[in-house]
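agent> Task received from the user: take the single chain below, predict its 3D structure, and emit structure tokens. No templates, no multimer pairing.
agent> Plan: (1) validate residues, (2) run structure prediction, (3) serialize to tokens, (4) report one or two observations.
agent> Step 1 OK, no nonstandard residues flagged.
tool_call: predict_structure(input=
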Amino acid sequence: MNDLELNWNKIHAYLGEAEKTVGDKAYTSEQVKRLLQFSLKLTRVMILLLASSGMRRGALLTLRKKHLTYIEKYRLYKITVYPKAKERYVTFCMPECASEINSYFDYRTSCDEVINDDSPVIRYAFDRRNKAEAKCPKPVSDKGFKFMLEGVVQNAGLKIRHEVDPNGKVSQRTEIMCAHGLRKFFDTSLSRARLRPNTMSVLMGHKGVLQHVYDKSGDEALLEEYIRAIDFLTIDDENRLRDKVETLHDKDKEIQELRAKMAKMEESRLKITELLEVMKIAKSGEGKVCKDRTTQGDDRVCG
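)
tool_result: status=success, residues=303
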């Protein structure tokens, strides 16, 4: 039997590109807000993490508490994604999401779960009356994650219809991917904030992007860029307004501190000026005494 070597490049050229079974559009801010309205604590954390960090759902499911670092100054979390893999990278989640995570951890603690560094950020839902179940957190599986998120999408009335071809056949293709649409929302928000393309790629953990080994200053540089996008990522208008008020409060506090420092500097300047005047008068008086002594024939030396 003769084996024939096929030229697959030519064959694929004639076949054309394979059609995607799903679309690649992003959720809008209003759609994400609606998802949150139909979510419980667990799914709220899931949705906000995906929307404000740009993580893939696989990364979210392996996330542990030790991979989160709270930054008090900005009230947000720095997130280390794939910490033990070559694809390791750093991203962040907005204050609205960080607040929801803290509330979720507090709820789990109130149910007798002991939260430690190895605790999964996203755990299976549990009956809080069942203390044994509450104390043994299990990470959510990919299947469970998909089931919960699709349930929220359906309850929110956002289940995108499948496309229908001219022959009336229902396609599997939809405009928005259930989980990936949240990652696309993150991408779109960064673009609206006019972040640099390379920074966007790093924050999204794109493969093939030349990434430097970020030291502390590198993470801070990424954070400064991320902060510019927070207003576009924030979903709840109340949270957005609160963040702006707190930002203005912080700026006002800085202004008050600067004024206090200026007042102290002015006080010091006046004291120095007064001291110089006293020294000038004293020196002038010494000069007059010397002159009088010279006039009177006193041979003592004047300092």
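agent> Step 4: summary for the user.
The two ends are 121 Å apart (CA to CA).
agent> Done.
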